[in-house]
Amino acid sequence: MKTLNILKEYLALTLATCVMNIGIYVFKFPNNFSFGGVSGMAVVLSKAFGISASGCNLVINMFLILLGFIFLGRKFGIKTVYVSILSSVGLSLMERFLPMSGPLTNQPMLELIFAILLPAFASAVLFNMDASGGGTDILAMILRKYSSVDIGVGLFVVDLAVTVSAFFVFGVETGLYSCCGLMAKSLVIDGVIENINLCKFFTIITDTPEVICDYIQVELNRSATITSAEGAYTGKQKYVVLTVVNRHQAVMLRNFIKKECPKSFLMITNSSEIIGKGFRGFNS
């Protein structure tokens, strides 16, 4: 079972990396979009030195992986190494077997959207699995270990420098597109991560906690916590049932309470960070 779970995990990592590579190779490289990261550096350097962006990406990533092993040792995440190598080699293979002489379409804004969405979606999936695409994330891990530098600010400065360089290397139009990409990238990643982990937190004030808890345990295969309470206005004994379920189960639970316990008072809150048995552990 453990081996099967590992295989599933690495299959998901592989698929996410493939999606990221499609966004980079098909939409980012041909349009010279340079909104940060190693792929952004590769775009700028390939133009400046007349080398392929994929080859440049491979060299930079291999150098950063080497730095990771030197400065981080065994604590250097194996998943990040796997994704970083797979991404770099994959881009080189795509360049060899699927050469592109120019952008896929004549609509740069449409291509910018895909250049942002595909890698950002893949990055969110990787982050959610405690992995990353490598690159500048490796620098962040090293900085976190050896300095008190604000990692977020440090990475943003690097990304901003790469983006600004696009104005000088490719012109104002490409530079402006790259600025849009830089601003949208982190928002998309945060939004995807939040939606992947989104659960519903129920606070149910009721007179019949047994009925509701039986449904939660038997039908939804979840658990709940019951606490005693007292109504401030009526002074009557009440019970508060607390539980967390996924979005599909939330609809089922809400409909059940509406039908079977219509006098209950129900509050539903979105939550994207649920840690504990049945959800995510502290080491997940």
Give a short overview:
Keywords: Cell membrane, Membrane, Transmembrane, Transmembrane helix. The chain has 284 residues and is an alpha+beta fold.
CA-based gyration radius: 24 Å
H/E element string? HHHHHHHHEHEEHE
The N- to C-terminal Cα distance equals 17 Å
The dominant shape is elongated
The fraction of residues in strands falls at 5-15%
Q: Number of DSSP strands?
A: 4
Contiguous runs where pLDDT drops below 50 for at least 5 residues: none
What value does the average pLDDT take? 86
Structural class estimated from helices and strands: alpha+beta
The total count of helices amounts to 10
Share of helical residues: 55-70%
What kind of sheet is the major sheet?
4 strands, antiparallel
Strand order within the widest beta sheet: 2-3-1-4
Membrane topology: Multi-pass membrane protein
Domain DUF2179: 222-276
Organism: Candidatus Fusicatenibacter merdavium
Keywords: Cell membrane, Membrane, Transmembrane, Transmembrane helix
Describe the structure.
With 284 residues, the protein is of the alpha+beta class. It contains 10 helices and 4 strands. The protein has a 4-stranded antiparallel β-sheet with strand order 2-3-1-4. Strand 2 and strand 3 form a beta hairpin. Helix 2 crosses helix 3 (53-72). The relative contact order is 0.12.
